[in-house]
Automatic annotation (TrEMBL), chain A:
Residues 86-300 form the ABC transmembrane type-1 domain. It is a multi-pass membrane protein. CDD domains: TM_PBP2 (cd06261). Belongs to the binding-protein-dependent transport system permease family. This is Multiple sugar transport system permease protein. It holds the Pfam family BPD_transp_1. PROSITE patterns: ABC_TM1. InterPro entries: ABC_transporter_permease, MetI-like, MetI-like_sf. It is found in: Cell membrane.
UniProtKB/TrEMBL annotation, chain B:
Belongs to the binding-protein-dependent transport system permease family. This is Multiple sugar transport system permease protein. It comes from Brachybacterium fresconis. PROSITE patterns: ABC_TM1. Its main location: membrane.
Length: 312, 303
């Protein structure tokens, strides 16, 4: 079962009747769990609390943090670069992720048709996912969509002269990064494939006997039975997409340009926190990110009741 | 139910020669469809892989040709980009490769040790607060790193660890990569409990059960963890960008980035050459570890 499924299960099975369970392994558990406990408190929970506290301060590492109340939040409300970075990130998440998942599902279904050479195609489609997060690929992308890049060379061959530099044009720069995101559809595709494998063949056979068309079988059997997997992919990919950084950083040379068109939220946070050392502001931004991601995950979980179909 | 009755009877059933005709016609049709499917797949594969191939080919071309030639032929093997790229940063490129290797090895060891211990506890031990701890662990899986990165940075700068690899490696020894804990928990759950119960009857404690029964059986999960940690940390950019400040300590991604800073877009050949070098280890791991990668991915959805 997936991590998301596991969480929903845990949430459902809160109440456990019967006598109180004993905990015979408390002592050994302490030893086995020691690394995780240290990590959870030292590297995650305490820093989280600290980050929350820092959100209400002005801190640049040089002098002790200075409590400034809600001034960071006020500043965020008036910060038009921050608003723009939210728009850019939302565009990326809500255009890029659906496109990526549709590609993933489509190719997973095609790959699942008993095609010869499955493992070859699967590898080819999966490879970009593994390399896609690297600086090398971001550099490649920057060249491909540059004024003299691969895309324009192909364009010129097809008769399109004087094409613009896609990454240096504010209208198209974000699109190139979204395209890079869609290109890495291999990882959700693998999850879809695994899900498709679990759908019993007899459902399709029964439907075929009933004379259901291929399209009907896809929408009446495949999609409903795949909804838990679709849900899982949506949750994970949305969370991941909100945190994208490397591609935007490299394609824009760390500036989020041209004219802030690729200023992702995380990139702005990095600039605020680690190049301008405005750590209080960066912390406040981090919490806003957490809240946004949390809200979208919660919405996902809530809406899932209406469309995710658990076959149990 | 009514569907079965109301379904129209197929027309060819009425005349005999028709059925034979249908059978004969069906075969080429299926062939066509199968071929069409392969054509679509092959075209899609080319689109997917073309940028990568083009980068490799471009790394072997003189710069002016990179800007003129979108094709993959003809190749005149010219390794001067590699020689130039290798030497054009503050350190020879091998220096960054070694740094990245050290980082990756440290992280792999950390993840293997810490995550397997934690996973054993979650999968096999009965202890107070296990379900809550497990839920928390799963939730940290979705926690954006940005929420903790600022205080972590402050913490590590106070201990004087900024500009070392410790802030990147130490958390791995504290099982902060929840993905792998989860992956290993899943795996251990699949190992029959009878095995540890037998060991138990023979007088083994949890440590011996863990080391002598579970750990050897966990090899596939450990391999998956190794491969994913390798790939992620080899690619790690955000963490390295924040913690590693002087070129001496740069990892491969930072070296590539500083290429972009110093060369602008003037020497794509050298940049591509070093990009290709940086992808070779990933590609090799992909080639040999594919089985584990795909399995690990399909069960937990880690990226």
């Amino acid at each position: 079962m997936s991590a998301v499924g596991e969480l929903t299960q845990l949430a459902k099975s809160r109440k456990k009747g019967g006598p109180k369970e004993k905990h015979p392994d408390n002592k050994s558990a302490l030893v086995f769990m020691a690394p995780w406990l240290l990590g959870f408190f030292g590297i995650t929970l305490i820093p989280m609390i600290a980050s929350f506290a820092l959100a209400f301060t002005d801190y640049s590492l040089l002098a002790p943090p200075e409590f400034t109340g809600l001034s960071n939040i006020k500043e965020m409300i008036g910060d038009s670069r921050l608003h723009n970075s939210l728009v850019v990130t939302f565009l990326y998440v809500f255009v890029g992720t659906p496109l990526q998942l549709i590609m993933a599902l489509l190719l997973a279904v095609l790959l699942n048709q008993g095609l010869k050479g499955l493992s070859f195609y699967r590898s080819v489609f999966y490879l970009p996912s593994l390399l896609g997060g690297s600086v090398a690929i971001a550099i490649l992308w920057r060249q491909m969509f540059g004024a003299n890049g691969l895309i324009n060379q192909v364009g010129a061959m097809l008769g399109f002269e004087n094409l613009p530099g896609w990454v240096s044009n504010p209208d198209t720069a974000l699109g190139t990064i979204i395209l890079l995101h869609v290109w890495t559809f291999g990882s959700p595709m693998i999850i879809f494939l695994a899900g498709l494998r679990q759908i019993p063949e007899m459902y399709y056979e029964a439907a075929a006997v009933d004379g259901a068309s291929k399209l009907a079988r896809f929408f009446r059997i495949t999609i409903p039975l795949l909804t838990p997997i679709i849900f899982f992919n949506v949750v994970l990919q949305v969370i991941n997409a909100f945190q994208s950084f490397t591609q935007a950083f490299v394609v824009s040379g760390g500036t989020g340009g041209p004219s802030d068109s690729t200023m992702f939220y995380t990139l702005y946070l990095y600039i605020k926190g680690f190049t301008q050392f405005d750590m209080g502001y960066a912390s406040a931004m981090a919490w806003l990110l957490l809240i946004i991601v949390g809200i979208f995950t919660a919405i996902n979980f809530f809406v899932s009741k209406f469309w995710v179909f658990y076959d149990d | 139910m009514t569907d079965l009755q109301s379904r129209p009877t197929p027309a060819p059933a009425t005349d005999d020669p028709g059925t034979a005709h249908v059978v004969r016609r069906k075969r080429p049709k299926r062939m066509v469809r199968r071929t069409a499917r392969h054509v679509v797949m092959i075209l899609a594969s080319i689109v997917m892989i073309y940028p990568l191939l083009w980068m490799v080919v471009s790394s072997l071309r003189p710069n002016d040709e990179i800007f003129r030639n979108p094709g993959l032929f003809p190749i005149s093997f010219d390794f001067s980009n590699y020689a130039r790229g290798w030497e054009s940063l503050a350190q020879p490129f091998s220096h960054y490769l070694i740094n990245s290797t050290l980082l990756v090895v440290g992280c792999v060891i950390g993840n293997l040790v810490a995550c397997s211990l934690t996973a054993y506890a979650f999968a096999r031990l009965k202890f107070w607060g296990r379900n809550i701890a497990f839920a928390i662990m799963l939730m940290t899986l979705m926690l954006p790193i940005h929420v903790v990165i600022v205080p972590q940075y402050i913490m590590f700068s106070q201990t004087g660890w900024v500009n070392t690899m410790l802030p990147l490696i130490l958390p791995k020894f504290l099982a902060t990569d929840a993905f792998f804990v989860f992956l290993m928990v899943q795996f251990i759950r699949g190992i029959p409990r009878e095995l540890d119960e037998a060991a138990r009857i023979d007088g083994c404690g949890h440590f011996r059960i863990f080391f002598q029964v579970i750990l050897p059986l966990m090899l596939p999960a450990l391999a998956t963890t190794t491969i994913f940690t390798f790939m992620w940390m080899w690619n790690d950019f955000f963490g390295s960008l924040i913690y590693l400040t002087t070129p001496d300590n740069f990892t491969v991604p930072l070296a590539l980035k500083s290429f972009l800073d110093t060369q602008g877009s003037s020497d794509w050949g050298a940049m591509f050459a070093m990009s290709v070098v940086s992808l070779i280890p990933l590609f090799l791991v992909f080639l040999f570890g594919q089985r584990f990668l795909i399995k690990g991915f399909a069960t937990t959805g880690i990226k």
